[in-house]
Amino acid sequence: MSDKSINQLTAIKLEALSDLGNLDSIDQLENWRVKYLGRKGNLTNILRGISTLPVDDRKIVGTEANKLRSSLEEEYEEALSTIKSGQYDQVDSIDITLPGRKPKIGRLHPSTNMIREIVHAFNEMGFQTVEGSEIELEKYNFDMLNIPADHPARDQWDTIWLDSDSHDDLLLRTHTSPMQARVMEKNDPPVRVIVPGKCYRYEATDATHEWHFNQIEGLAVDENITFADLKGTLYEFVKKIFGPSRKVRFRCDFFPFVEPGVDMSIDWNGRWIEILGAGMVHPKVLDAVGYDTEKYTGFAFGMGPERISMLQNEITDIRNFYSNDLRFLSQF
Ligand code: DAH
Fold first, then answer.
1. Do the domain assignments include residue 98?
2. Of ligand 1's atoms, which has the minimum distance to the CA of residue 303?
3. Mean pLDDT, residues 92-101
4. Rounded CA gap, 298 and 282, in Å?
5. Count of domains forming the chain
6. Pick from 20, 62, 236, 321: CA 20 to 30 A from residue 102's CA?
7. Domain boundary pick from 92, 118, 150
8. DSSP state, 177?
9. What is the pLDDT of residue 232?
10. pLDDT value at position 41?
11. Which numbered atom of ligand 1 lies nearest the CA of 258?
12. Which CATH number do you get for residue 305?
């Protein structure tokens, strides 16, 4: 009894393989699939009929029929991919009537956009853009800014120190303020500069702290510069970035390189949010670069463009700026 079924299976196999050899289109292959593997196909009939066979034969025929089924399924998959790739090869001309696809165009990073906007606002007020090195000497990052070694104020700037055979005073700048000293050292007053750049801190990250970030430093030194100039300049800056009616608040704050020192906040939906530190340049800083402290005064300020962008664009986590996720980056 089982012999008959096995012979049938062999016949199906031979016929199926021979048919398959003559196929060259997806439609023909689909007919083949229906004929040999479909619900009404010969093979399915045999599988359905197994329960009517004597018990001993069921196992033999069942095993063979299932083997054939999976081998035909494999043949089908193979033939399908051969036909598909063959069709692909047959494309021997380009359809020039197809509409073109737009290539993806890159864009500036949101930090870069914000930096440019802020720097531009100060350029318009007569500040010249200057950039400095991210690797800095302790002298400029701290000493010349009135932050001597062992002064507790250094703790405010958790520092990444660099290993070097020739220097034990190299670090990744913790702020852009060292450029105050470098610019004044090289130039006589009047000085009016805006300094964007990358800074680094040995700090744990969270939604509002990154271990690397951008800062923008500003410095103006001349005869007769007063705190009113500081306020006027920063008011103007806020107007340019946040609109003409934004409320601003100054509070006393401490930074070793300014006296008096302030922080400036803007009104943010009824809350005060701090956006920068500022103050009148400390006479010790002017003295360190050889400026006549009787003749010259100045103001300085420093801000984080990522923080400003967070306010402007309602971004809640500063780490987004550096996590390289295009879904974030392409929004701003
Ligand atoms: N360098 C300061 C910081 O990183 C920011 C700052 C505050 C810069 C006051 C200034 C300033 O120029 O006057 O926290």
1. no
2. 5
3. 81
4. 9
5. 2
6. 321
7. 92
8. T
9. 97
10. 86
11. 13
12. 3.30.930.10
Query: Which pLDDT band, with edges at 50, 70 and 90, does 274 fall under?
Result: very high
Ligand 1 site, residue 276, Cβ cutoff 6 A: no
What one-letter code names the amino acid at 43?
L
Q: Do 313 and 221 share a structural domain?
A: yes
What mean pLDDT is predicted for residues 296-324? 94
Q: pLDDT class for 160, splitting at 50, 70, 90?
A: very high
Q: Are strands 128-129 and 258-268 parallel, antiparallel or unpaired?
A: unpaired
CA–centroid distance, residue 177 to ligand 1 (Å): 6
Q: How far apart are the CA of 154 and the centre of ligand 1, in A?
A: 13
Atom of ligand 1 nearest to the CA of 299: 13
Average pLDDT over residues 71-97: 79
> Cβ(310) to ligand 1 under 6 A?
no
CA 172 to mean position of chain CA atoms: 22
Task: Look at residue 322 in the predicted model and tell me its pLDDT.
Answer: 92
In a shared domain, residues 133 and 56: no
- For ligand 1, atom 4: residue with the closest CA: 175
Active-site residue numbers?
157, 175, 201, 215, 258, 300
Place of tokens 């300094």: 195
Q: Same domain, yes or no, for 160 and 243? A: yes
Average pLDDT, the chain: 92
Cα–Cα distance for residue pair 292/228, rounded to 1 Å: 21
Q: How far does the centroid of ligand 1 lie from the alpha carbon of residue 263, in Å?
A: 9
Predicted confidence at residue 130, as pLDDT, reads 98
Residue-number span of the structural domain to which 51 is assigned: 2-92
Same domain, 264 and 314: yes
Q: Where are the beta strands (DSSP E) in 30-124?
A: none
Residue carrying structure tokens 């949010």? 273
Ligand 1 proximity of 277 Cβ (cutoff 6 Å): yes
Residues 117 and 61 in one domain: no
User: Up-side HSE of residue 215: CA atoms within 13 Å toward CB?
Assistant: 25
